[in-house]
Amino acid sequence: MTKLSTKHLLGIKELNADDINLILSTAESFKEVINRPIKKVPSLRDITIANLFFENSTRTKLSFELAEKRLSADVVNFSAAASSVKKGETLIDTVNNILAMKVDMVVMRHPNPGAAVFLSKHIDAKIVNAGDGAHEHPTQALLDAFSIKEKLGSIKGKKIAIIGDILHSRVALSNIFCLQKLGAQVMVCGPTTLMPKYIHSLGVKVEHDLRKALEWCDVANMLRIQLERQDIKYFPSLREYTMLFGLNKDLLDSLSKKIVVMHPGPINRGVEITSDVADSAQSIILDQVENGVAVRMAVLFLLAGRV
Ligand code: CP
Question: The domain spanning residue 62 has which CATH number?
Answer without folding.
Answer: 3.40.50.1370
